[in-house]
Amino acid sequence: MRIYPFDIPLVKPFKIATMTNHAASGVFVAIDAGGVTGWGECLPFHAINGENQGTCVESLKIFAEFLIGKNALELRHLIKTCFQLMPTQTTAICGVDVALHDLVSQSANLPLWAWLGGSQRELKTDLTIGIVDPEEAKSRAAEIASQGFEVIKLKLGDGLANDYARVEAVREGAPDVDIRVDANQAYDREAAMTVLEGIAEFNIQFCEQPVKRGDWEGLKWLHNNAPVPVMADESCFSAQDAFGLFSRGCCSLVNVKLCKSGGLLGGADIGSVVESGFGKSMIGGMAETRLGVSASAHLACTNQVFEFFDLDAHMGHTFDPIDGGIQIVSGSINIGESVGLGARPSSEFLNKLSCFEVK
Ligand SMILES: [Mg+2]
């Protein structure tokens, strides 16, 4: 395994309720076997996963030692063992999971979505606006709509007055788009209810994670009483979480992210639970490059239960170091025809990075 930490500055700082991000600081993972290289990416958000670039590098070294001499085709067994070795390091496990999937699907000479038994389908993504002033939100919303996006995701979390003004500004700037919002655990249940009652007039699709991740009862109360549907994001990392949330009536919407689920296998498992519970789900991301976003798009092709897409993670980066991979045209994702994942870091970018090799 080769491990490449990287940093890509963002065009503007990205503020959410729990942290402000200035750079996409992640790790590329390369796994070589039989003359083929599979690529994966870890993009940790410390306030969500409790992982950072350094913890990902150290976890990957442990996974690399374990993977030496193993058969990549035994993917599920290998990933389950990674979970046994480092149960909470889901971002690091995601890098291994995606690299192994890229490796085996390239070896089978199939696009990853086809190796997974999926179908090509239209994937319309939103574009996200962080916690910014209303004037900036309004002009960003108008710009996003003019680029052909039909959905805007807006971050909430700095109080009812500011949240209301920001949503109102987005609605003024882009009267015809769908709006979804995300409070990133900012509120207790009563404050969340006040915010949702306030913004409901703007016809909001749903609100991600209005309450703390552990406040399943609060989420349930909002699910039953709030005028805007609620979606679990930070509360739902795994299929077990999704099963618990659905079976206890806490919500009917969950947000799947590969860096929470430990990659594609975990993400597909959540999809099966959502399907069994007659719920709906979104696929989102952290601040991945187009490599990580491409992996999410392949997962999206495996199950119609993935209905909403928030696959704009790379769009705030100052440069794009990825060869191949998905392209976004007028808000729709083109996944391409390449075998495997179809995306890899450019040689030019890799040559600038330090590399830890375990073999
Ligand atoms: Mg979210």
Task: Compute the CA-based radius of gyration.
Answer: 19 Å
Tally of helical runs: 14
Spatial sequence of strands, sheet with the most strands: 4-5-6-7-8
Topology as H/E string?
Answer: EEEHHHHHEHEHEHEHEHEHHEHEEEEEHE
Counted beta strands? 16
Looking at the structure, what is the overall shape?
globular
Task: Assign the structural class, choosing from mainly alpha, mainly beta, alpha/beta, alpha+beta, or little secondary structure.
Answer: alpha/beta
For the record, give the distance between the C-alpha atoms at the N and C termini, rounded to a whole number.
6 Å
Q: Any chance you could write out the topology, listing elements then pairs?
A:
Elements: E1 2-15, E2 20-33, E3 36-42, H1 46-49, H2 53-67, H3 75-85, H4 90-107, H5 112-115, E4 127-129, H6 134-146, E5 151-155, H7 160-173, E6 178-182, H8 189-199, E7 204-208, H9 216-225, E8 230-231, H10 239-247, E9 253-256, H11 258-261, H12 264-276, E10 280-283, H13 290-300, E11 306-309, E12 322-324, E13 327-329, E14 332-334, E15 343-345, H14 347-350, E16 356-357
Parallel strand pairs: 4-5, 5-6, 6-7, 7-8, 9-10, 10-11
Antiparallel strand pairs: 1-2, 1-16, 2-3, 12-15, 13-14
The structure holds magnesium ion.
Magnesium ion is lined by residues 182, 184, 208-209, 233, 255.
Architecture overview:
- The chain is α/β, with parallel strands linked by helices and 359 residues long.
- The chain folds into 2 domains: 2-110 and 345-357, 2-Layer Sandwich (Enolase-like, domain 1); 115-341, Alpha-Beta Barrel (TIM Barrel).
- The protein has helices spanning 46-49, 53-67, 75-85, 90-107, 112-115, 134-146, 160-173, 189-199, 216-225, 239-247, 258-261, 264-276, 290-300, 347-350; strands at residues 2-15, 20-33, 36-42, 127-129, 151-155, 178-182, 204-208, 230-231, 253-256, 280-283, 306-309, 322-324, 327-329, 332-334, 343-345, 356-357.
- Strands 4-5-6-7-8 form a 5-stranded parallel beta sheet. It has a 4-stranded antiparallel beta sheet with strand order 3-2-1-16, sandwiched between helices. It has a 3-stranded parallel beta sheet with strand order 9-10-11.
- Helix 7 runs parallel beside helix 8 (189-199) and helix 10 packs parallel to helix 12.
- The model has no long low-confidence stretch (mean pLDDT 97).
- Bound molecules: magnesium ion (MG).
- Magnesium ion binds at residues 182, 184, 208-209, 233, 255.
- Residues 182, 184, 208-209, 233, 255 line the site of magnesium ion.
